[in-house]
């Protein structure tokens, strides 16, 4: 049976080599029309509408910090948080701990000025004012003892305040950080797959580490310290003006000079950012190389990569040179201003002690007190500004986090219709489905795609690379929504079906199964009925049963720790075929109604393939199956074979029907038969047997 009109055009496309890629079949190019139709036809459906909006995505290099140089796209559904403080409300600081920390921070801010109050008493006791008699030795001793005791009290108070502040801050900080990371990660996990196509993984992870750290530090530590230095400033000003308003006023004259430090501070911040960005780029280069070491080595790219890494490092060195200049000048101005201020204060104090100014005279002790507390006030003010700046700076990071936390996923991760068990048969219908990926909205991947898959039927998708086969499985898994048309399952629109329930109802085996860094048993249980890693409802016997069905039990029993064997990151340590069989055992355990196989055996050698294929054949029994395969030998027995090209169906039928049709499928079959056996196309109907040999 022919579905498309184009198969006749395949006659001149017979490949010269059996190893050449599957030949493309020209189909009518009307992508633009589809994109346009897509944008107009379904505007009434809000959710589809949002998917269409993705079509307005603009490419732009958004973030220079990127881990790779790939392009990131603007996200039309990204919220624009107007009030970043909302994050603090939404996530919730632990206000009890935070307020306790602030309370003791204010107390710690009073400590420094209080010392100078007692210091004044000491100086005035030791050095009596002009005309007063010096104290006797015993009077001096008891006065000094009393003052020393007061200092101990202040030290105790200050130590206690600092200690409790830090303790409460640590509690508040960790609790806030956990909540912040948890909310961000949960929001991230709930986003639809299209979101991860348009966002760079490196950037998302840097929000999780860097931005969370900045926000957490700002709204716990910096906030408490702002209060601490504010209290130091206020008390310092009050005490110094109370002691000598004139000397205090002179001391305050140095404040404007701190703008020089502020300017240097801006350069320090800029150069720090430059340094950390360059360092991040160098690190991402290293990560890229280490994770892709096989590819680098196979292409003898070690030297090239070393050069690339050194180039990144030289940028770090240059950036750190700017940073050192900026930091050095900030330190220079800071020290110069403070100590010149101190000198000036003593100069004025000397005049006030001896001659006085306008009848205003002070004692030596008062001079020391005024100098000390006003110095604390000035430092308090400068530090308040610095801590406050950190708070303001953190708003940008809070904004980044809110953009993820507040984003409404375009495909809600849970909730919706669940097909009652008695109605769930596994009949899947694609009705005029058109689709384009959010990151490439102008490339129509599926165009008016219609297909009916009956319950229990095995349907195979074949076609050139990029013809949209995997996209069909992506849509079936509800990772993406069709732009137009709909997919129904037993009469229910997939759009309305609860994705969480649905993904437990279907099982998928892909070319490269991912195993997690946990035991084989937990890996098999991973996709189990309740989606829990250690589901107490699933017994070891059930796991073993699934592994037997998947031809995995024997090799697992040969491993040292058997089912408890830890498989490393991404299952390193197991062969491709072994990993695949663990993945099949995983699917067996969930007992899905519908099975999707996307090149499940493509990456395996013949021996492994036969074990995996045998496991798959057992798994397919009695289930609706959609399988994708390049090797026709694995799909010749399918009830229906769908030949695709450029997102359209060009031929459809069973193996014999398609061979008789003499179109694209026959070309493909001839190519594979000749490639395997060197025989003529007469043996096409034996393709299965030929391949199995
Ligand atoms: N996540 C994605 N974002 C953007 N475009 C994508 C994405 N995945 C696939 N595509 C594009 O969609 C088209 C169809 O891809 P698909 O993976 O469905 O092809 P396929 O038929 O499975 O090919 P293959 O046989 O090579 O696996 C291709 O042009 C591909 O570049
Ligand atoms: Mg594919």
UniProtKB/TrEMBL annotation:
GO CC terms of this entry = mitochondrial inner membrane
Q: Read off the PROSITE patterns from this record.
A: ABC_TM1F (PS50929), ABC_TRANSPORTER_2 (PS50893)
Per the database record, which ranges form the ABC transporter domain? 428-671
In the UniProt record, does the keyword Nucleotide-binding occur?
yes
Q: Where are the transmembrane segments?
A: 95-119, 143-164, 249-270, 332-354, 366-386
Key word Membrane present in the record? Answer: yes
Matching entries from CDD domains are given as: ABC_6TM_Pgp_ABCB1_D1_like (cd18577), ABC_MTABC3_MDL1_MDL2 (cd03249)
Q: Name one Pfam family in it.
A: ABC_membrane
Tell me where in or outside the cell this protein is found: Membrane
Q: Name one GO biological process term.
A: oligopeptide export from mitochondrion
Region Disordered: what ranges? 1-27, 54-79
Bilayer topology: Multi-pass membrane protein
Arranged from A to Z, the UniProt key words for this protein are: ATP-binding, Membrane, Nucleotide-binding, Transmembrane, Transmembrane helix
Locations of Polar residues compositional bias?
1-11, 64-73
Q: Which domain of life is it from?
A: Eukaryota
GO molecular-function terms, A-Z: ABC-type oligopeptide transporter activity; ATP binding; ATP hydrolysis activity
Specify the ABC transmembrane type-1 domain's residue ranges: 100-393
The UniProt entry's sequence similarity note says: Belongs to the ABC transporter superfamily. ABCB family. Multidrug resistance exporter (TC 3.A.1.201) subfamily.
Recorded protein name is: Bile salt export pump
What lineage is this protein's organism placed in? Eukaryota, Discoba, Heterolobosea, Tetramitia, Eutetramitia
């Amino acid at each position: 049976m022919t579905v498309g009109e184009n198969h006749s055009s395949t006659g001149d496309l017979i490949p010269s080599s059996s190893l050449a890629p599957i030949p493309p079949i020209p189909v009518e190019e009307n992508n633009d029309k589809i994109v346009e139709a897509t944008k107009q036809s379904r505007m009434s459906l809000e959710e589809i509408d949002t998917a269409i909006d993705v079509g307005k995505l603009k490419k732009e290099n958004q973030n220079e910090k990127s881990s790779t140089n790939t392009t990131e796209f603007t996200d039309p559904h990204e919220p624009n948080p107007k009030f970043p403080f909302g994050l603090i409300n939404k996530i919730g600081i632990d206000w009890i701990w935070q307020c306790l920390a602030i309370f003791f921070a204010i107390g710690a801010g009073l400590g420094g000025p209080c010392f100078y109050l007692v210091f004044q008493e000491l100086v005035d006791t030791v050095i009596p004012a002009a005309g007063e008699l010096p104290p006797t030795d015993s009077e001096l001793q008891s006065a000094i003892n009393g003052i020393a005791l007061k200092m101990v009290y202040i030290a105790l108070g200050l130590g206690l305040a600092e200690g409790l502040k830090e303790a409460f801050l640590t509690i508040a900080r960790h609790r806030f950080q956990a909540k912040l990371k948890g909310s961000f990660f949960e929001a991230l996990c709930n986003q639809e797959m299209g979101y991860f196509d348009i966002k760079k993984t490196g950037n998302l992870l840097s929000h999780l580490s860097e931005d969370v750290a900045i926000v957490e530090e700002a709204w716990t530590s910096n906030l408490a310290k702002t209060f601490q230095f504010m209290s130091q400033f206020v008390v310092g000003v009050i005490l110094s003006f109370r002691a000598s308003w004139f000397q205090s006023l002179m001391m305050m004259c140095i404040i404007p000079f701190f703008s020089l430090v502020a300017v240097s501070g801006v350069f320090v911040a800029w150069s720090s950012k430059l340094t950390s960005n360059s360092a991040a780029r160098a690190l991402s280069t290293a990560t890229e190389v280490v994770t892709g070491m096989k590819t680098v080595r196979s292409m003898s790219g070690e030297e090239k990569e070393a050069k690339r890494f050194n180039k990144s490092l030289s940028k770090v060195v240059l950036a750190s040179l700017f940073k050192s200049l900026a930091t050095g000048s900030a330190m220079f101005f800071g020290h110069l201003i403070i100590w010149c201020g101190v000198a000036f204060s003593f100069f004025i104090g000397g005049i006030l002690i001896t001659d006085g100014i306008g009848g205003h005279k002070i004692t030596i002790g008062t001079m020391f007190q005024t100098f000390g507390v006003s110095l604390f006030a000035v430092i308090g003010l400068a530090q308040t500004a610095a801590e406050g700046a950190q708070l303001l700076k953190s708003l940008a990071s809070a904004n980044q986090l809110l953009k993820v936390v507040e984003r409404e996923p375009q495909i809600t991760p849970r909730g919706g219709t669940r097909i009652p068990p008695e109605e769930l048969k596994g009949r899947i219908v694609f009705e005029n489905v058109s689709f384009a990926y959010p990151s490439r909205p102008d490339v129509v991947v599926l165009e008016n795609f219609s297909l009916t898959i009956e319950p229990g039927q095995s349907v195979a998708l074949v076609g050139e690379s990029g013809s949209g086969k995997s996209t069909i499985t992506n849509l079936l898994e509800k990772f993406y929504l069709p732009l137009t048309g709909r997919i129904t399952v037993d009469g229910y629109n997939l759009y309305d079906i609860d994705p969480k329930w649905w993904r437990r109802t279907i099982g998928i085996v892909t070319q490269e199964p991912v195993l997690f860094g946990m035991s084989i048993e937990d890996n098999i249980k991973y996709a189990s009925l309740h989606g829990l890693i250690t589901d107490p409802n699933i017994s070891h016997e059930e796991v073993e049963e699934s592994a037997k069905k998947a031809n995995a039990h024997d090799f697992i029993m040969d491993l040292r720790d058997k089912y408890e064997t830890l498989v490393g990151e991404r299952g390193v340590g197991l062969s491709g075929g072994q990993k695949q069989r663990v993945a099949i055992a995983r699917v067996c355990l969930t007992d899905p109604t519908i099975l999707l196989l996307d090149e499940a055996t493509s990456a395996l050698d013949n021996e492994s393939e036969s074990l995996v294929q045998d496991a798959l054949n057992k798994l397919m029994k009695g289930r609706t199956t959609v399988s994708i395969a390049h090797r026709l030998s694995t799909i010749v027995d399918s009830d229906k074979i769908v030949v695709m090209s450029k997102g359209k169906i060009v031929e459809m039928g069973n193996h014999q029907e398609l061979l008789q049709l003499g179109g694209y499928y026959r070309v493909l079959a001839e190519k594979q038969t000749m490639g395997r056996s060197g025989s003529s196309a007469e043996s096409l109907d034996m393709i299965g047997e030929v391949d199995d040999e």
